[in-house]
Amino acid sequence: MPLMMNNKTPVWRRREPLAQRLIWLAYFLTVLLFLLCWKIVSDNTIWEFLADAHIQAASLIGRMIPPQWSISGSLLLPLWDTINIATVGTALGVLIAFPLAFLAARNTSPHPALRAFALAVIVSSRSINALIWAILLVTIVGPGLLAGMIAIALRSIGFVGKLLYEAIEEIQVTPVEAVTATGAGRMQILNYAVLPQIMPAFAGITVYRWDINIRESTVLGLVGAGGIGLQMNAAINNLAWAQVSMVFVLIFATVILSEWVSAKVRHAVI
Amino acid sequence: MLKLTGLTKRYATGDLALNDISLSVPAGQVLALIGPSGAGKSTLIRCVNRLVEPTAGAVELDGRDISKVRGGALRQARRQIGMIFQNYALVERLSVMENVLSGRLAYVGFWRSYFRKFPANDVKQAYRLLARVGLESMLDKRSDALSGGQKQRVGIARALMQNPKLLLVDEPTASLDPKTSRQIMRLICELCQEQNLATIINIHDVALAQQFVHRVVGLRAGEIVYDGSPDGLTPDILTTIYGEEDWSLTHQDSGKQSDNDQNDDVEAAIMGGHP
Q1: pLDDT over 80 at B66, yes or no
Q2: Which CATH number among 1.10.3720.10, 3.90.1150.10, 1.20.1530.20, 3.30.930.10 corresponds to the domain A76-269?
Q3: Contacts of A17 (CB under 8 A, 6+ apart)
Q4: Model pLDDT, residue A5
Q5: Torsion over CA of B229, B231, B237 and B238, rounded to 10 degrees?
Q6: Which residues of A touch B76 (CB under 8 A)?
Q7: Nearest CB to B105; choose among A175, A179, A200
Q8: What is the per-residue pLDDT for B249?
């Protein structure tokens, strides 16, 4: 009873006194836990190494600047490969995720067994990182672009499928009722009442995933799945930091470009 | 035309929404279904076109029981029954024309509807109906660009695109201002006369119902407690339907009202509308 009478004046508090005290206790325990963790980390750190960390960082950055502009020409083809891995991978993933989302959404799924199947595919795709998919695929289909594309596609299925089926489950029901009441068939209802409602979400999710995939595909080269990551790995192994920073600059430019494209697409489809 | 026999609906939660409803509506009759919220008005009309599955009883349309049909036969039955919704239920991101043409979906195949290749006659009819409801200049607009009254007109055109025999109307004016409400009610009733449709209108506004309809059915807790002419709604009867309240004003009010347009405009002006 947060409302109490004190000399006939009503006194209101947000919570019961006991509940309030328990909340304070919970805050206190959280702070305690944080300090305990801090101590464990601190005990396991060799602080002597940190003493000259700023010098190390400055030295590394010094060796990175200026980037070795001369190699940028030879990086363009791997960069193109990277963009292709991301784009083709996204397209492939979306192609598979789109029907899966309709099977997985509670309001459009034709059968509970199909729904369970679709959800299982989506969850297993999401639970494995693109880099791990790439490692698996390089051993299966061999190193190169194809492995990268499939890795990106497999990871995208889960991401796009999950967000899309959530969008389908959140649509307004009344237009669906109205189209059903006209006597339309199942596919016509999906086409006329469901699809228009999820189009903005679908476009947004797709470009967002493409945007993420551009960044993810830059590291796939580290495990031999093609693209600019291969060059970056070689440069790191040779301690050629000026070349590494050149790769960074190119990746940075590409990500900016992809941000711009995503913004345009999202704006166009709303 | 429409004949309900012993229609009963019990929801999975155990609530008895409709209890043994028997009712028949001849072609050309506009029937208002009134009653408090939760009386089962919406459930009743949704049981007719099977958006809600009735638990027991028969729904006969032209002598054919449609309460158990499935698949293609159900779609066949539904396309003869137009429905108009309280919140318009348009697909907001589709154009006005697409919304109206969606009333023909049960008449065309999937691929034709997918590529929006409707038969020329359907397009002609859609244009004619949009002109009839006064929206021919809007047909290329996206539906979310329309006002409430305009959206409801599109909803009416969509329902009539089906060439229905029966029209189910669920609270058509609940989201509209008083003037637009009257215009929409008048439009619905005129169109029903023109096309000789049997019509059931769920409505909360008793005075508005009395002004436009031929027959009133009062529903309370899933049972019919009044079935008669709009003039027969005395304060006593209203108390039976809705419960104890001072009804004298409603009754007087409805007595004064007429179908006269001038009167309407004065009323709308008083209530803040634009005549």
Answers
A1: yes
A2: 1.10.3720.10
A3: none
A4: 76
A5: 110
A6: 183
A7: A179
A8: 67
Please indicate if any CB of chain A lies within 8 Å of the CB of B83.
Answer: yes
* CA distance between the termini of chain A: 48
Among the CATH numbers 3.40.30.10, 3.30.565.10, 3.40.50.300, 3.40.50.150, which is that of B1-76+214-275? Answer: 3.40.50.300
Q: Tell me the Ramachandran region of residue A7: left when phi exceeds 0, alpha when psi lies from -120 to 50, beta otherwise.
A: left
Q: Mean pLDDT over all residues of chain A? A: 90
Give the global pTM. 0.82
- Which of B139, B138, B126, B141 lies closest to B93 in space, CA to CA? B141
pLDDT tens digits, one per residue of A194-217: 999 999 899 989 988 998 998 888
**Consecutive H or E run containing B20:** strand B16-25
Which of A237, A250, A235, A239 has the alpha carbon at shortest distance from A60?
A239
Q: Are strands B215-220 and B30-34 parallel, antiparallel or unpaired?
A: parallel
Residue B3 backbone phi and psi in degrees, to 5: -135, 120
Write out chain B residues lying below 8 Å of A204, CB-based.
none
For residue B54, whether the previous peptide bond is cis, meaning omega lies within 30 degrees of 0, is: no
Q: Compute, in degrees rounded to 10, the torsion defined by CA atoms B156, B160, B165, B170.
A: -20
Evaluate whether A67 touches A245 at the Cβ level (below 8 Å). yes
pLDDT in tens, A29-77: 999 999 999 999 998 888 888 888 888 899 889 888 888 888 878 888 8
Q: Would you place residue B243 in the very low, low, confident or very high pLDDT band (cuts 50, 70, 90)?
A: confident
| Pair A210, A262: CB distance under 8 Å | yes
Rounded distance between C-alpha atoms, residue B45 and residue B201, angstroms:
9
Q: Classify B64 as helix, strand or coil.
A: strand
CA distance A175 to chain B (A): 5
Structure tokens at B31: 């029937």
Read off the tokens for A214: 């551009």
Could you read off the pLDDT of B111-135 as tens digits, one per residue?
A: 999 999 999 999 999 999 999 999 9
* Beta-carbon separation of B75 and A177 below 8 A: no
Please list, in sequence order, all residues whose beta carbon lies within 8 angstroms of the beta carbon of residue A119, skipping any fewer than 6 positions away: A104
Q: Do A174 and B162 touch (CB under 8 A)?
A: no
